[in-house]
Fold this protein.
Amino acid sequence: MATRVNILDYDRASLERYFVDQGENAFRARQLMKWIYQRRVGDFAQMTDLGKVLRQRLSETAEVRLPRIIADRVSVDGTRKWLLAVPGGSAIETVFIPETDRGTLCVSSQVGCSLNCTFCATARQGYNRNLSTGEIIAQLVIADRLLSADAGERVITNVVMMGMGEPLLNYESVVSAMRLMVDDLGFGLSRRRVTLSTAGVVPGIDRLASDCPVSLAVSLHAPTDELRTSIVPLNRKYDIATLLDACKRYLAGDNRRRITFEYVMLKGVNDGDRHARELVRLLQGVPAKVNLIPFNPSPGIDYECSDSRTIDRFRERLLAAGIMTITRKTRGDDIDAACGQLAGSVLDRTRRSARLQAAGA
Ligand code: SAH
């Protein structure tokens, strides 16, 4: 049997084309999306307004394909993490973070990551492949079904593309998936409540501004090129000045919006008064918010988190300069669900993980 198409791979425009190509009315796309994303029904037989013939044809040629759940764990703080099997023998992670006024789903975009940031657990797993649109949006579909079964209502109010991988290196699939997140017939989230986080893929930032201008977070982590290159190797390709120019273009003069800059606090590396001063200077003229992320340890990663007093002092220096700054609360670290701890299980095609092991790192 030929493989069925996965309906989750299509955003609204491509789903309309899919139906038109089969001689159906484009309107079928709307009906199908309502069933899948709003009524949470994936079985074509139950989609009664589609007509019997079409239902039959869909069930022979298409499917709503969801990855198998390998593990489903809940942290003492309520954070929940799913390990999902993806074809090819690897597994990815998705995390739900409940807060009093919102529920945030942290979504993966790649199996592993190719960027090799020195402090990140995903990097150590190496890289296998990009996720498809369907595999990205399936993370919402699964979490939404399981969480709503408990709560009886939508509890995912925000999505952050901050799981495994670099979303802007999987541009097409990530943009289609985000279009489904913000589509009224999809998850209906406002663009402000969908955040893409990037290590600084400049051409991707520019394309995103016109294709799907969601909230942007940038993993800055250091105020000078020398230091940033040593911990985020991508900085060699797109240096800080180039990156900040792209950030300003992204906001296109809209003075209500800001870029969120993520800054992982590494003891003795990037957390000094000098770094805070340099960061303040750097962000002059950039509409910015800074998120300080206490470093989360992972086996084999040789950094320590800055002390809380150092983090407070760093934050106060930024605040004193008028920069909106918060320290991100660590969530789900008891189940390895915190920032930088997502590792899934990646069949590494770059052999990076094997090289690291051989080197005794
Ligand atoms: N590749 C994208 C998406 C990942 S987002 C990006 O780099 O932005 C995950 C966030 O967690 C990034 O800001 C990343 O730098 C940060 N992070 C990675 N490892 C971490 C760790 N060990 N402790 C705290 N934050 C970490």
